[in-house]
């Protein structure tokens, strides 16, 4: 049966450079002496460490629990001893350190007792939790926690389950080799996913430049007696983008910010399907993955690599050439330049490229945009990239958003075809970063303003309360005084001091303040040894004697004035 | 390179401009053979002026000179200026045209990629307004020797009313304005060949060949040439059918004046033109409409240049109002596969 395929707009056809790494089968990379397993290996929240330094762990033992709904567990990739749980350099362009579990392997590679469940009879929620705890995430590069995608769309059904074996980025062949060698496992994983999604049809999309993989997958589907269709799709970058592949296979366009399940489609990478198979059929969590090593190396190839293996140890297996300048994780179109050579392989690592000046030449000087619209012709999202470029350059971020900046998938097609050599994607990353920063700032400012307004309100309220309280107290005192006044009226009628109740109030306040001051003054001598305290007491008596002697000489009102000046202010709110 | 993509297609502004120059060569060769080699002299004068002005302006603007001069954009501008000028204009007129295009239109607006107007068309319009007589002396095919042409270009006596004829468009206009002649009668005159102006029609064919080359090389898209030719042909056919005595045939309009040069090389200037597919159609169609109106009812025999400038002004609006829908926002996107 020939399926009608659909087109997505634009796309480019860079040199694929795939043949060199597919000549030999997938090899097992040796167990490194030291593994660095970052806690944050999925989209969403990082995992929460479950181990302590010094603890012995077995291969496949959970060392980090999922840290929230959008998160996945992490596991010890081999048996050994946890040396530390500390920030380490992770494969991110920023070069920032993130918490990681550092394991010293014992070389035995001893598995922990596998956990099993039967997904056919277990409630779906428990199966999803099991997949989460097996650490399965999208292995195409986005590392979206897989369990969150293993639920049917509206109506408890999914029309189409798409398996993504397109692998459109140049150099990368890990999915190709996995399909060639482990097609049975992928088909088994696809069957599990189909069950979980209640999918009506399964389409396995593979770019037509991988005839061996297509044949192997067709054979595996037939051998398993499954109703799944292996579809060869035209080779055109970025056909392997989930939304692009869904478009090609089903004609459905899933808009930015919406989930494909709402359109009856769900898409998984073939490597992810294989991991689902390993987790649910073999009880093995995700502790290793297939990684392509290519670029400036003598013997490009594919390796099954333990998560946490330093990239330089992996690249060393392929004979890196001396002029390698840096490593790239991923392909040349969307890959990320590594901050160092010894960053660990993580679940997102589909490819490690050794880069030199010949393979990835330094950018030619940026020239002015001539509005040739080559970028618009190449954009798979049908954006007007040069408009976004102008808006980004002029920091007109509102306009950039109006022109759908956030629909950009950063595939790099526009920069690839630009005759003026403008690093267009960098401009979009800059704009997105600025917009996010501004939104954060705005949120912070809004919060600060709300706090300030509430503080003003609270102060007003407290002032009012205090005034009311004081008024009540004054009224009370006045009443008391009046009472006393009427009682002593005949005797004190001529006494000038008692005449004004206000003066009495002031006098009382002064007395209180004086008492308070006396109470507070000696505080700095409180915590001293008895001996010193005795000495101080001695000094105090001497000083008092001197003061007493001096008083007659000075005018009497002076200390009173000082006291009045010392009156404590109304406590400031 | 620090960020992805780390690889690039082997393209450059220089390559784009080089291909445009290459595509102009058939038309230039036909021009030199049929009308005379004077055009080559003017091409040399305008190229030297434009490149010199480009380098000077870049230097004054404190921009890297070598890279920007090397992109060949100034040469393209110079050639287009020359090709829309009569081939026997005095040298200083060519110099003025090239200077206006490079200094005023291009660099005063910010250099390559920044000019809202087509440099060659501003040069043409400003010179035809300033020197209408000199800008109207189009020699007929094969009547002026190289020596005469050279003498005229280098500032010889310009008593040439006897030797230069009116262009086809001019002759038609004058003939029709006299009120006594019909189109057919005018077209019997010596200025006319099988299709348009005698000799000039084959230069147009040369431009078409170059244009098709650019289309094949995907330097230009089909939108603008098709919309320009389509609208010009459509509206002239309509009026020609209504009154063939007063309106010339579509073939005449397409083969005369600068129609083919404009369709493939002027209208398609990426910098000053519309960028969206629908915007390109409206832009080029608008130019054709204005050009036809001016040819038939305006004060000038040729109206393409004014059409281009008027439509240049509309480009920001056209682009804004014709933004194509993005992925996932097409009307039929959701149920595409159903």
Automatic annotation (TrEMBL), chain A:
<feature type="binding site">
    <location>
        <position position="414"/>
    </location>
    <ligand>
        <name>[4Fe-4S] cluster 2</name>
    </ligand>
</feature>
<feature type="binding site">
    <location>
        <position position="408"/>
    </location>
    <ligand>
        <name>[4Fe-4S] cluster 2</name>
    </ligand>
</feature>
<dbReference type="InterPro" id="IPR019554">
    <property type="entry name" value="Soluble_ligand-bd"/>
</dbReference>
<dbReference type="Pfam" id="PF01512">
    <property type="entry name" value="Complex1_51K"/>
</dbReference>
<keyword id="KW-0813">Transport</keyword>
<comment type="subunit">
    <text>The complex is composed of six subunits: RnfA, RnfB, RnfC, RnfD, RnfE and RnfG.</text>
</comment>
<protein>
    <recommendedName>
        <fullName>Ion-translocating oxidoreductase complex subunit C</fullName>
        <ecNumber>7.-.-.-</ecNumber>
    </recommendedName>
</protein>
<keyword id="KW-0677">Repeat</keyword>
<feature type="binding site">
    <location>
        <position position="369"/>
    </location>
    <ligand>
        <name>[4Fe-4S] cluster 1</name>
    </ligand>
</feature>
<dbReference type="InterPro" id="IPR017900">
    <property type="entry name" value="4Fe4S_Fe_S_CS"/>
</dbReference>
<dbReference type="Pfam" id="PF12838">
    <property type="entry name" value="Fer4_7"/>
</dbReference>
<dbReference type="GO" id="GO:0046872">
    <property type="term" value="F:metal ion binding"/>
</dbReference>
<dbReference type="InterPro" id="IPR026902">
    <property type="entry name" value="RnfC_N"/>
</dbReference>
<feature type="binding site">
    <location>
        <position position="411"/>
    </location>
    <ligand>
        <name>[4Fe-4S] cluster 2</name>
    </ligand>
</feature>
<feature type="binding site">
    <location>
        <position position="372"/>
    </location>
    <ligand>
        <name>[4Fe-4S] cluster 1</name>
    </ligand>
</feature>
<keyword id="KW-1278">Translocase</keyword>
<feature type="domain" description="4Fe-4S ferredoxin-type">
    <location>
        <begin position="359"/>
        <end position="389"/>
    </location>
</feature>
<feature type="binding site">
    <location>
        <position position="418"/>
    </location>
    <ligand>
        <name>[4Fe-4S] cluster 1</name>
    </ligand>
</feature>
<keyword id="KW-0408">Iron</keyword>
<feature type="compositionally biased region" description="Polar residues">
    <location>
        <begin position="521"/>
        <end position="534"/>
    </location>
</feature>
<dbReference type="GO" id="GO:0005886">
    <property type="term" value="C:plasma membrane"/>
</dbReference>
<comment type="function">
    <text>Part of a membrane-bound complex that couples electron transfer with translocation of ions across the membrane.</text>
</comment>
TrEMBL record, chain B:
<feature type="transmembrane region" description="Helical">
    <location>
        <begin position="65"/>
        <end position="83"/>
    </location>
</feature>
<keyword id="KW-0997">Cell inner membrane</keyword>
<dbReference type="InterPro" id="IPR004338">
    <property type="entry name" value="NqrB/RnfD"/>
</dbReference>
<keyword id="KW-0472">Membrane</keyword>
<comment type="subunit">
    <text>The complex is composed of six subunits: RnfA, RnfB, RnfC, RnfD, RnfE and RnfG.</text>
</comment>
<keyword id="KW-0812">Transmembrane</keyword>
<keyword id="KW-0249">Electron transport</keyword>
<feature type="transmembrane region" description="Helical">
    <location>
        <begin position="247"/>
        <end position="267"/>
    </location>
</feature>
<dbReference type="GO" id="GO:0022900">
    <property type="term" value="P:electron transport chain"/>
</dbReference>
<feature type="transmembrane region" description="Helical">
    <location>
        <begin position="39"/>
        <end position="58"/>
    </location>
</feature>
<keyword id="KW-0813">Transport</keyword>
<keyword id="KW-0597">Phosphoprotein</keyword>
<comment type="function">
    <text>Part of a membrane-bound complex that couples electron transfer with translocation of ions across the membrane.</text>
</comment>
<keyword id="KW-0288">FMN</keyword>
<feature type="modified residue" description="FMN phosphoryl threonine">
    <location>
        <position position="167"/>
    </location>
</feature>
<protein>
    <recommendedName>
        <fullName>Ion-translocating oxidoreductase complex subunit D</fullName>
        <ecNumber>7.-.-.-</ecNumber>
    </recommendedName>
</protein>
<dbReference type="GO" id="GO:0005886">
    <property type="term" value="C:plasma membrane"/>
</dbReference>
<feature type="transmembrane region" description="Helical">
    <location>
        <begin position="12"/>
        <end position="33"/>
    </location>
</feature>
<dbReference type="GO" id="GO:0055085">
    <property type="term" value="P:transmembrane transport"/>
</dbReference>
<keyword id="KW-1278">Translocase</keyword>
<dbReference type="InterPro" id="IPR011303">
    <property type="entry name" value="RnfD_bac"/>
</dbReference>
<keyword id="KW-0285">Flavoprotein</keyword>
């Amino acid at each position: 049966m020939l399926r009608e395929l659909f087109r997505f707009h634009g796309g480019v056809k860079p040199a694929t450079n795939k043949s060199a790494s597919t000549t030999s089968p997938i090899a097992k990379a040796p167990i490194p002496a030291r593994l660095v397993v970052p806690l944050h290996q999925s989209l969403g929240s990082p995992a929460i460490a479950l181990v302590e330094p010094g603890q012995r762990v077995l291969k496949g033992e959970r060392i980090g629990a999922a840290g929230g709904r959008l998160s996945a567990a992490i596991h010890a990739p081999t048996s050994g001893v946890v040396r530390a749980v500390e920030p380490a350099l992770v494969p991110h362009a920023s070069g920032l350190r993130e918490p990681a579990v550092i394991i010293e392997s014992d070389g035995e590679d001893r598995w922990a007792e596998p956990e099993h469940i039967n997904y056919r009879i277990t409630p779906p929620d428990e199966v999803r939790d099991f997949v989460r705890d097996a650490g399965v995430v999208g292995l195409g590069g986005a590392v979206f926690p897989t369990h969150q995608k293993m639920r049917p769309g509206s109506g408890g059904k999914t029309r189409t389950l798409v398996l993504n074996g397109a692998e459109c980025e140049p150099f990368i062949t890990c999915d190709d080799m996995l399909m060639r060698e482990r097609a049975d496992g992928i088909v088994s994983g696809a069957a599990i996913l189909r069950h979980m999604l209640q999918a009506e049809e399964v389409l396995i999309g593979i770019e037509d430049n991988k005839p061996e993989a297509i044949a192997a997958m067709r054979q595996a589907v037939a051998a398993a007696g499954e109703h799944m269709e292996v579809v060869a799709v035209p080779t055109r970058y970025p056909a392997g983008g989930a939304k692009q592949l869904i478009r090609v296979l089903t004609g459905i366009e899933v808009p930015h910010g919406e989930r494909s399940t709402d359109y009856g489609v769900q898409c998984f990478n073939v490597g992810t399907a294989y991991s689902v198979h390993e987790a649910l059929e073999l009880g093995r969590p995700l502790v290793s993955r297939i990684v392509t090593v290519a670029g400036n190396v003598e013997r490009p190839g594919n390796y099954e690599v333990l998560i946490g293996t330093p990239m330089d140890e992996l690249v060393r297996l392929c004979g890196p050439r001396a002029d390698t300048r840096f490593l790239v994780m991923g392909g040349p179109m969307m890959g990320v330049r590594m901050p160092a050579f010894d960053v660990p392989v993580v679940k997102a690592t589909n490819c490690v490229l050794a880069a030199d000046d010949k393979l990835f030449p330094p950018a030619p000087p940026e020239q002015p945009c001539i509005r040739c619209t080559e970028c618009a012709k190449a954009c798979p999202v049908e954006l007007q990239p040069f408009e976004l470029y102008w808006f980004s350059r002029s920091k007109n971020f509102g306009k950039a958003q109006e022109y759908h900046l956030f629909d950009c998938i950063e595939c790099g097609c526009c920069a690839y075809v630009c005759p003026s050599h403008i690093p267009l994607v960098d401009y979009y990353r800059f704009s997105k970063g600025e917009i996010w920063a501004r939104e954060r700032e705005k949120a912070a400012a809004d919060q600060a303003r709300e706090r300030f307004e509430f503080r003003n309100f609270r102060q007003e309220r407290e002032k009012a309360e205090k005034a009311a309280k004081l008024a009540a107290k004054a009224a009370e005192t006045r009443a008391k005084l009046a009472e006393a006044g009427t009682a002593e009226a005949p005797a004190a009628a001529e006494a000038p001091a008692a005449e004004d109740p206000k003066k009495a109030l002031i006098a009382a306040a002064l007395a209180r303040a004086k008492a308070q001051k006396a109470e507070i003054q000696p505080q700095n001598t409180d915590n001293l040894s008895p001996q010193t305290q005795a000495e101080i007491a001695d000094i105090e008596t001497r000083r008092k004697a001197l003061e007493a002697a001096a008083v007659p000489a000075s005018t009497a009102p002076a200390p009173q004035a000082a006291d009045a000046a010392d009156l404590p202010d109304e406590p400031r709110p | 390179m620090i960020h992805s993509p780390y690889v690039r297609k082997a393209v450059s502004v220089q390559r784009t401009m080089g291909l445009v120059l290459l595509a102009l060569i058939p038309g230039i060769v036909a021009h030199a053979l049929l009308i005379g080699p004077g055009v080559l002299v003017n091409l040399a004068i305008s190229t030297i002026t434009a490149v010199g002005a480009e380098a000077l302006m870049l230097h004054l603007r404190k921009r890297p000179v070598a890279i920007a001069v090397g992109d060949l954009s100034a040469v393209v501008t110079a050639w287009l200026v020359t090709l829309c000028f009569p081939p026997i204009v005095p040298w200083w007129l060519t110099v003025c045209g090239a200077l206006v295009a490079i200094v005023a239109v291009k660099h005063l607006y910010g250099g390559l990629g920044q000019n809202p107007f087509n440099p060659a068309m501003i040069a043409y319009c400003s010179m035809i307004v300033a020197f209408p007589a000199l800008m109207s002396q189009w020699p007929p095919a094969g009547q002026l020797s190289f020596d005469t042409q050279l003498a005229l270009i280098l500032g010889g006596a310009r008593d040439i009313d006897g030797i230069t004829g009116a262009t086809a468009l001019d002759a038609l206009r004058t003939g029709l304005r006299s009120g006594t002649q019909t189109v057919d009668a005018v077209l019997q005159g010596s200025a006319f060949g099988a299709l348009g102006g005698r000799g000039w029609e084959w230069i147009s064919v040369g431009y078409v060949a170059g244009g098709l080359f650019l289309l094949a090389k995907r330097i230009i898209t089909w939108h603008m040439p098709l919309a320009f030719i389509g609208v010009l042909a459509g509206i002239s056919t309509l009026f020609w059918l209504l009154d063939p005595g007063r309106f010339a045939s579509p073939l005449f309009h397409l083969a005369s004046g600068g129609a083919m040069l404009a369709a493939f090389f002027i209208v398609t200037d990426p910098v000053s033109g519309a960028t969206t597919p629908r915007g390109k159609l409206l832009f080029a169609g608008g130019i054709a409409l204005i050009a036809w109106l001016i040819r038939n009812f305006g004060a000038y025999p040729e109206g393409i240049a004014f059409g281009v400038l008027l439509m240049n002004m509309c480009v920001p609006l056209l682009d804004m109002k014709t933004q194509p829908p993005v992925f996932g926002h097409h009307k039929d996107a959701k149920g595409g596969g159903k």
